[in-house]
Amino acid sequence: MNYAPENPLIVQSDLTVLLEVNSPRYEAARDVLARFAELEKSPEHIHTYRITPLSLWNAAAAGLNAVEIGEALETHGKYEIPQNVNVEIEETIARYGRIELDRDGDHLVLTADDPLLLVEILRHKTVEPYIKERLDDHRAAVEPLYRGHLKQALTKVGFPVRDLAGYLAGSPLSFSLRDETLFGESFALRDYQREASEIFYAGGGPDGGSGTIVLPCGAGKTIVGLAVMHQYQAQTLVLTTNITASRQWLAEVLDKTDLREDQVGEYSGERKEIKPVTVATYHILTYRREKGGDFPHFSLFNEGGWGLIIYDEVHLLPAPVFRFTAELQARRRLGLTATLVREDGLETDVFSLIGPKRYDVPWRELESKGWIAIAACKEIRIPLPEKLRLDYAVAGGRAKFRISSENPDKIDLVRRLVDSHSGDQILVIGQYLDQLEELSKELNAPIIQGKTPSEERDKLYDRFRKKQLNLLIVSKVANFAVDLPDANVAIQVSGTFGSRQEEAQRLGRILRPKEGDNLAHFYTLVTKDTREQEFARNRQMFLTEQGYRYSIHDATDVTSPAQAG
Predict the structure, then answer these.
(1) Domains contained in the chain, CATH given
(2) Which residues of 338-364 are buried (b: 16+ CB within 10 A; e: fewer)?
């Protein structure tokens, strides 16, 4: 046994795990723990993780077993592991794959390794509607239409099914990845990108074809998507978070494959193209003319000969798309994300309908190899002005959050930070338009917001990439999938309550590899002793989840070069 006082893990009988941040072994323990446990709390000194059935099933799908998990807990544990913990881990992981779904001609067959287990699951009210008939002691017939619904139900009753029923081949699409991009730069898959795509592909057999790839922000998840497309050589539908993300996907397809422009299409509010590779937004798919009405664009799922559907930023997949995805289980599905955490708690549906986690890689490993930038994450706390204290005291919860988020003294603090980063490529990111417009005026910097036309957005992004512009104010429309590789400073002035998803996207804007010291700076401005500070703790959980340490500073510590002189 390796139990030692200097070890950072305290494993408790309720399957919570406490991780001591100040231990010299913190980082190694954190990296291994993140593979099979979910982060729940991340205050300064002790982080709390929980080992859940879903976290264990995702770990099992990604190749971990109970013995490896037990050894990891023992290696980093401060005290002896409670006996029930190893037993529960073994029993929970053993449930993954005890039930299989396979194909027999035009029918699907559910098979259990134990006749009594089949009896148990068939008696569940949530499972029973999807069973056509019992075939023998171990098998039952399932209607193909209910493949996804059955997988959801089985996961919720604690027996996740291993789906080996295979997928439609889709219409063929022959293409190659380029060795040199359109801009004359050499291009090749990084080792982890190739490994992720090969694990998903699984030799083209039924073990592959569905699941989620989890990679840190800035690690090139789009490239993994292109690699998977190349493996299958089939027509592909890509779903993205917004029109900017869609156009960046289209640009990447043309830049890094030999597909022609007439083979790729955009399906959005502005265009309705259906091509061998079609990129659509979640927004257009969930559009309906009236509340409770039909989703007229869901037909897109069946209008192409899709051999693969890619769900970009799968942690943001809207609930209505889940409902339709339940009926799309015969098509291969790839989810891409930096975090499996969803604010709506639908992680189980991602597991059941898109597929379990197939691959992840520790953030620190990519940082050490220079594939993503080193990020210095700082929270800077600023007092609420005296003149706003009465308004804050009498305001309701939401109003309190907004008053503290729009603290006018943040304007001067942003100016000082901008001055201290002269020569850097800086993004100022926020939630509230009045605040952002004032910053735009005070800093004499352009702003991108919801009403900014797509053409103007693209021009501003292009100027920023070319370093003709070194300061850009952006609203939440720039949270998702905006590729600004040279951005190395982000100043977050306000956010959406405690969204870990949003923190993931905003941090991702600055994590592309950098020339020189490969260092990026991520600042979050927070009004101290307010609702904003409470919600900031939730957002910090993402930074911890990704392996970042963050430091907390007082606004008086920030000085511009002019003030310092």
Answers:
(1) 9-95 (no CATH), 99-163 (3.30.70), 191-366 (3.40.50.300), 373-564 (3.40.50.300)
(2) bbbbbeeebbbbbbbbbbbbbbbbbbb
Residues 433, 434, 437, 443, CA torsion sign: negative
Query: Can you say whether the dihedral through the CA atoms of 66, 68, 71, 76 is positive or negative?
Result: negative
Which H or E element spans position 248? helix 243-256
d(CA 106, CA 132): 13
Query: From residue 153, how far is each of 6, 66, 132, 352 by CA, in Å?
Result: 44, 24, 15, 9
Query: Would you state the structure tokens that stand for residue 5, as one six-digit string?
Result: 């006082």
Q: What is the pLDDT of residues 94-111, one digit of tens each?
A: 999 899 999 988 789 999
Q: What is the rounded CA–CA span in Å between residue 231 and residue 257?
A: 13
| 453-502 pLDDT per residue, tens | 878 888 888 898 888 999 999 887 655 445 566 788 889 898 765 455 55
For residue 123, what are the CA distances in angstroms to 91, 92, 108, 230, 326? 21, 21, 19, 43, 22
Which residues on neighbouring strands pair with residue 11, listed in sequence order?
17
Q: Coil, helix or strand for 498?
A: coil
| Those residues with Cβ within 8 angstroms of residue 516's Cβ, 6 or more apart along the chain or in another chain | none
Strand residue runs (E) in 369-432: 374-382, 426-429
For the chain, how are helix, strand and coil distributed in percent, rounded to 5? Answer: 40, 20, 40
What gap in Å lies between CA 315 and CA 336, rounded to an integer? 8
| 239 touches 208 (CB < 8 A) | no
